[in-house]
Each structure stands twice: as C-alpha cells, then as structure tokens.
Amino acid sequence: MAKEQTFEEMMVELEKVVGKLDEENISLEESIELYQRGIELSSKCETKLKEAEEKVNKLVKSEGDSNESDHQ
C-alpha cells in the first residue's frame, strides 16, 4: 500500500502539474490527464487544510475553556 502524501508533497506535485499544463507542446490527452490529477490534488489539499483548521479550532477552544476554568 502506498504511503499517503503529505500536504507539502501534494502541493509540490500540484505545482509541477500546473507547470506542465503551461507548456505549449503538450498533447490533448496528456493535458486532460494532468488536469484530472490537478483536480484530485487540489481536492485532497483542501481536505487536509480543513482537517488542520478543525484541529486548530479545537485546540484554541480547549485552551479557552481551560483558561476560563482557571479564572473561576
């Protein structure tokens, strides 16, 4: 089973995909494959960002709750 890519690895690959799509001598078939891969990577990156945001929000809320109980 392949190791899941990190957010950073996916961003690097996405940048490479965009770079290849910018090339003028790319075939239609390859551009469609690259576009599909780009959409997939973009979606996965967005999911990872949302997960990270949720974790940060929970930590901030937890810290806020902890501080409130300290002041009571």
Q: Taking all residues together, what is the mean pLDDT?
A: 92
Number of domains: 1
Per the CATH scheme, the topology name is Helix Hairpins
- What overall form do the CA principal axes indicate? rod-shaped
Question: H/E order of the elements?
Answer: HH
Q: Sheet with the most strands?
A: none
**CATH 2nd-level architecture:** Orthogonal Bundle
Helix content: over 70%
Strand content: under 5%
Tell me the number of helical segments per DSSP (H or I, 4 or more residues long): 2
How many β strands by DSSP?
Answer: 0
Low-confidence stretches: none
User: What's the end-to-end separation, in Å?
Assistant: 51 Å
Determine the structural class based on helices, strands and strand pairing.
mainly alpha
Q: Specify the CATH class.
A: Mainly Alpha
Question: What Rg do the Cα atoms give?
Answer: 19 Å
Subunit structure: Heterooligomer composed of large and small subunits.
Family: Belongs to the XseB family.
Keywords: Coiled coil, Cytoplasm, Exonuclease, Hydrolase, Nuclease
Subcellular location: Cytoplasm
What labels would you give this structure?
2 helices, cytoplasm, 0% strand, rod-shaped, coiled coil, Helix Hairpins, 82% helix, 72 residues, mainly alpha, exodeoxyribonuclease VII activity, Exonuc_VII_S
Describe the structure.
- There is one protein chain.
- The protein has about 70 residues and is an all-alpha fold.
- It has one domain (about 10-70): Helix Hairpins (Orthogonal Bundle), CATH 1.10.287.
- It has two helices and no strands.
- It is rod-shaped and about 65 Å long.
